[in-house]
Amino acid sequence: MTELDFKRHRRLRSSAGIRGMVRETHLHKEDLIYPIFVKEGNNIKNEVPSMPGVYQWSLDRLNEELTEIVDLGIASIIVFGVPAAKDDTGTSAYCNEGIVQQGIRQIKAQYPQLTVIADTCLCQFTDHGHCGVIEDGEILNDESLALLVKTAVSQVKAGADIIAPSNMMDGFVAAIRRGLDEAGFHNVPIMSYAVKYASSFYGPFRDAAHSSPQFGDRKTYQMDPANRLEALREARSDVEEGADFLIVKPALAYLDIIRDVKERHPLPIVAYNVSGEYSMVKAAAANGWIDEKSVVLEKLLSMKRAGADLILTYFAKDVVKWLDEK
C-alpha cells in the first residue's frame, strides 16, 4: 500500500502544538455554574457525606465559600436552600425571609458581580418532599404553579439574576413568565429545567438538600429515562412559553438529548452534571482507580461537544484550578 492509498490523519496529532491548533471543543471557566447549599442555623459548614468537597453553609459562614469562588474567577452560581422547618405547601420556599431569599440578598450585597441563579422548586421545603401541592396522594399541577410563581417572584425581589424552575409541572415556564412580567420583572431570564429525567443519579443531591420524597417517587412529573421524543416535546413547550435557557438533567447519560435539543433550539443549552455523576468519580478517584482530573475534564468536554453552552457542575472549583494550571 502506498501513501496515496490512505489518509494520514495522524499528521494532525503529531505534536502538542498541532493538536492544540486543531482542537474543536474547548472548556472555559465562563462555561461553569457552581451550586451552593445555604442552610438555616449558625456556624455551619457541613460536608455532604456522599459528596466530598461539597458543603452546606450557614449564612454567617457563607462568605468563606463566596470568597473562594470569586477568587477562582467563577462568575455564576445557583443557590439551593435547606430550611429549618417544612410544611405541606413549602411555605418557606416563597417567604421573603426564607433561607434562599436571605442567601441571595447576602450574596448580592457582598459580591454583586456574581450572576446568581435561584433554583425554583418546592421539594426542599415541603414535609412530603414532592415538588408541588398534594391532595389525596396526587401532586396537583395547577395549584402548584401558583406557589411556584410566588417563589420565583420572591427570589427575584431578593436579587436573583436568573430564575431556574426545576419542578417539571406542566406550564411552569408560562406561569412564571407571566408572574414575573406582572411583577415588573420583564428582563429576568428563565433557565428552565426543560428536560429532567426521573433519574437514579440524584441520590447524593437529596443528601445535600434533604429533599427525598417521603412517599412514592417523582415519576408522574419527571421523565422516563427511556424516552427521547418526549424530551423534544418538553423542550419545545418551554421555548414556546418563554424560556431563555434550556437545562438537560442529568448530563452524562443523556448526551444524545443535549445534542437533539441543541440542534432544534437556538437558545443556550445547560448540561446539569448531577450529584451522582460527581460522587462516582470522587469515589473512584479516592480508591486510586482513575485519574480524577483527566476523567472530569473528559466528561465535561463530552458535554460541550454534545452541544452544551454551559455546565452546572459540582466540579467547577476543581476544574477552574486545573484550567489555570494549563
Automatic annotation (TrEMBL):
The active site is at residues 196, 249. Catalyzes an early step in the biosynthesis of tetrapyrroles. Binds two molecules of 5-aminolevulinate per subunit, each at a distinct site, and catalyzes their condensation to form porphobilinogen. Mg(2+) binds at residue 234. Pfam families: ALAD. Gene3D superfamilies: Aldolase class I. Keywords: Heme biosynthesis, Lyase, Magnesium, Metal-binding, Porphyrin biosynthesis, Zinc. SUPFAM superfamilies: Aldolase (SSF51569). GO terms for molecular function: porphobilinogen synthase activity; zinc ion binding. InterPro entries: ALAD, ALAD_AS, Aldolase_TIM. Its EC number is 4.2.1.24. This is Delta-aminolevulinic acid dehydratase. It catalyses: 2 5-aminolevulinate = porphobilinogen + 2 H2O + H(+). Belongs to the ALAD family. Its cofactor is Zn(2+). It comes from the Bacteria. The keyword Magnesium applies. PROSITE patterns: D_ALA_DEHYDRATASE (PS00169). GO terms for biological process: protoporphyrinogen IX biosynthetic process. PANTHER family: DELTA-AMINOLEVULINIC ACID DEHYDRATASE (PTHR11458:SF0).
